[in-house]
Design brief:
Two copies of one chain form a homodimer. By secondary structure, chain A is α/β, with parallel strands linked by helices. Chain A contains 15 helices and 17 strands. Helices cover 40% and strands 23% of the residues of chain A. Chain A has a six-stranded mixed β-sheet, with helices on both faces. In chain A, helix 3 (53-65) packs across helix 4. Chain A is globular.
Chain lengths: 431, 431
């Protein structure tokens, strides 16, 4: 049945020499793949082509011949190699016309940036193919464009990831839901976030409890392990015509898995452990100060990525050199000389010191060896001491992280957030 | 001329549901793009298809019709959804035959892993299309396979990135150099890094000086604008039979562009402005301390991403709350009450304060409104005050950044690094 539920397929076309040259990794496509599947419009094919009119035409024609929805990303910028808009509008016989409203908007945007006149190069971004629907780009100068042709919806999006995502999250999502309404079988996901456990260990624990995945995954449900430097997310996915049925199936699977992953699980809307820490701090009416040596600002940066963090996060010290550890955190010469900068005592003094220096309820400290230099037989690269100081006392932890400099720093920051959550997350841990 | 130098084009086909579904970001393609371009076999098109025989056949046929080299990655594993080998061998009429040598090798490999018998699923990995050349995989059980058909070289590679890379670095690289010998024109790149200027402005400046790109781009040379939140890179690319010729052509283009981009240009091996700042600090034997409010650790994190930064970067203060600005940086109540936390005086006091608190030669401070809350008519979201304090005095700058919270923070951090570079980069700026 050509118009049945769940038969919708999407073709994505990525335009850009830099993608084929490999100077840019195409993260847009994976993001679009997830979002489109969630909407019920799974991607069936992807073409990546050069900034070349013949190549773009061939890919668009191929996409339109096998799909009802073709998304093209890239090539909407203001420079000479951005030719997607012109090529597609010519191909579909929709002449480009300057949109007066768009032009005013662009002029205003550039005035705010301090330009008296709109650069000539940006004028082309006010040109709209006749009859096209303009999709607002809240983060840039190139709007998205949607056109109907031969029963196919063709959408042009800028290649800049954050702009593409913003358009998808706004006008485009609404348009797709409306255009394909009644025919979408959305894939519904449920995420279980974990940290501090390797993917292989998680898989083993689950396999030991359920040798047959059918015992916890219902009909048509799949589970994916999504690991990164911060942890492993378990993603349960199921396509259903009814959201209620999908919810019940996901609830059953989550109930079966919950006791197995409990030791490493955290809850967070965004999937970011820093957000879970902020929520826990707010709940306990605690403020937090951070002292970072090897992570040098990663923990503070992550906490402040979330708007409104200033109600519980006050700041802290990047104590990269021993001099700063002593001058601002009161770390003692004795501690530095006896155990070295990467030691339990120094971590304790840093956590206590930052808490006192800024008058916060909780202080967390990280000191470690991120590499590539600085390792020794006794303290190899990846050795990190963590400490959390509260009214209840100081809690410390030593971890040996694997990986390169970037991996050690990311993992150490994540472990520090974990230790804060463990220290303030449960009322019983505060005396 | 069909067999001339530089006319070689490659088609890459990535096979895998997880790529289209978006659970995996396709990093293989970017890596292959770089390696193939460097070899002189630039990728002209990329197809991404499902683990489906019809889809694989259609993509291989399309690739073979427009190219002399088709690389297929993915679908060579031992599980039921790995169908690339079987589909392609059937399509080309090359029956699969068990290769006795491969079979022994596989059995040996599994014995080493502690298996008495080769799992049935892995037996298929000893099957080779008749006449195919086996490309050794030193890191896994699926070898690469190379086949000639209708004048096209078709290569199958496993999708696991490290295995794919190992095969390319070994047998496949040698095979390609040999097969296309005398016709390879490797592509050489040159990067010009800029910051603090929008892409459209750069394009306009260059167009104003050279209405005809041929005036600065030599024969066969192309230039791409690669913008992100931190700045715009200009990438010059040229394919040449001789590396010396390529260098001369790139030198000529760079000389023509250099005076135009000079106001915004910086030099850095990695392309990161933070690295340029570290180099300038080292050259002037200066140490740096950082006081961050709205960026809350981004500048410190970026500086310390580079190993060895501890010789010039000492640390600093994340002064998110006013209390921390006062307690650790000596910001005065008068300054906070008269101009507010986002003001020139507070930025000056922060820069001077952090420099004195930790005894550094240079202090840099950032205080601003990242949003989404906190903006006002007088100080809209995106308003950021920057200050750099050196022996020569304090230099300040106020910038109104566009974009969301993430963009304002990234751009403010980049502008702070720029101001440090301007303050210490030229010996004349130090008294």
């Amino acid at each position: 049945m050509a118009s049945g539920l769940g038969d919708l397929r999407t073709v994505v076309i990525s335009v850009g020499n830099e993608l084929l040259f490999g100077s840019t990794v195409d993260t847009n496509s994976a993001w679009l793949g997830r979002e489109l599947a969630a909407l019920g419009l799974p991607v069936s094919r992807r073409y990546t082509v050069r900034d070349d009119a013949d190549e773009i035409r061939a890919a668009v024609a191929a996409g339109m011949s096998c799909s009802e929805l073709v998304l093209v990303t890239g090539g909407l910028g203001p420079t000479h190699d951005d030719i997607t808009r012109g090529t597609v509008s010519e191909m579909l016989g929709l002449p480009l016309k300057v949109d007066p409203g768009r032009l005013l908007q662009l002029q205003e945007r550039f005035r705010q940036r301090g330009y008296d006149v709109l650069p000539e190069a940006n004028r082309s971004q006010a040109e709209i193919p006749e009859g096209a629907c303009v999709l607002d780009n809240p983060l840039g100068t190139a709007p998205g464009l949607a056109m109907e042709s031969d029963g196919v919806l063709l959408v042009l999006l800028p290649g800049v990831p954050r702009e593409m995502r913003a358009i998808f999250g706004g006008d485009l999502g609404a348009l797709l839901r409306d255009r394909f309404s009644g025919r979408l079988a959305p894939v519904v996901h449920r995420m279980l976030h974990t940290t501090g456990v390797p993917e292989s260990k998680l898989a083993e624990v689950i396999r030991a409890a359920f040798p047959d995945p059918a015992a916890y995954l219902g009909d048509g449900m799949s589970m994916a392990f999504l690991p990164d430097l911060r942890g492993v997310d378990l993603r349960l996915s199921v396509a259903h015509a009814s959201a209620g049925e999908a919810e019940s199936a996901l609830n059953r699977a989550e109930s079966a898995l919950a006791p197995l992953v409990a030791p490493w699980r955290f809850d967070s809307e965004s999937g970011d452990l820093a957000e879970a820490v902020l929520v826990a701090l707010r709940r306990g009416r605690n403020t937090l100060a951070v002292a970072e040596s090897c992570t040098a600002g990663i923990v503070s940066t992550r906490l402040t990525e979330h708007a409104g963090s200033s109600d519980v996060f006050v700041g802290g010290v990047v104590a990269y050199s021993n001099g700063v550890k002593q001058a601002l955190l009161g770390v003692t010469t004795v501690a530095l000389e006896s155990g070295g900068a990467v030691s339990e005592v120094v971590a304790q003094q840093m956590a206590l010191g930052v808490r006192e220096a800024v008058g916060a309820d909780v202080g967390v400290a990280i000191t470690g060896i991120a590499g590539p230099g600085g390792g020794s037989q006794e303290k190899p690269i990846g050795t990190v001491w963590l400490a959390v100081s509260t009214d209840g006392g100081v809690r410390t932890e030593c971890v040996l992280f694997t990986g390169d400099r970037e991996a050690v720093r990311e993992r150490a920051a994540q472990a520090a957030l974990s230790l804060v959550l463990a220290s303030v997350g449960h009322p019983s841990s505060r005396h």
